[in-house]
Design a protein that fits this description.
This protein is an alpha/beta fold and 317 residues long. Helices cover 39% and strands 17% of the residues.
Length: 317
Amino acid sequence: MDSLALICTIALLGGGIYWFVCILGPAEQKGKRAVDLSGGSISAEKVQDKLQSVLVLLPPPQGDRKDRERDGRRPHLRRPRRQNPRRRCCGVGGPMRAIAAHSRAKVVGITINEYQVNRAKIHNKKAGLDALCEVVCGNFLEMPFDDNSFDGAYSIEATCHAPKLEEVYAEVYRVLKPGALYVSYEWVTTDKFNGDDAEHVEVIQGIERGDALPGLRSYNEIAETARKVGFEVVREKDLASPPAEPWWTRLKMGRISYWRNHIVITVLAALGIAPKGTVDVHEMLFKTADYLTRGGDSGIFSPMHMILCRQTSRSIP
């Protein structure tokens, strides 16, 4: 009888944990189920992968454009393919692999983080793209590349980490060939941001702190900085503005979802399955997601301020 009671108790407890973790899900937003996510393990490498940023330099591939890019949020793939396939990039290479697979162009990445270099090489090989994708360890403020050596460039949520935007833009300008295009996604405060509003300031400072930013720049500084180093600004647009769908909704997390994740992570950390510090990282990511959601919902922050520039061959001031 005691054995039967024990079995029933264990079954009930297991069912409750399964319901709490796998069925209940996020209270406000449903994304992929846990079983549908790739790489089902928690490790220090996973944490590092999520906290890294990307700078990518890339020239358009050869050939004529046959299919128009349907996603307006990927302007770097909408330009005509004219030049020889030689380009550069960074991070652990997510965008690099996507673009190489799509265009069959060679992409070379630059990142200051040696860990990222090693991880990117592993991912490139697993994807069967190591012949097209190469990663170089270096500083994007002092790129180890020759002048006028690239046919095009793009950066995705990376240059916002530069202490001075002018310095990284000047380096991009230097390594581009005359007439080459550069497109970038910048994190910015929008025209709705009010520096005298305490809540606005709290949200922006929370984003800066949680995402290790030297300081968010105003949207109107981006084009001005690009022109200052010699670029011609071809186009500038906030791709997060309507009619684009809200980008922040998937970041929303209800209290039930938060406590579900917190309990699971705490247990995994206590058992030594999750690396030390995972609970602290979870807390930081939760707070940062909240600030990002508030910034997006209020319209004072955009992570998708797109600027398209052309190298004009004018000397850099």
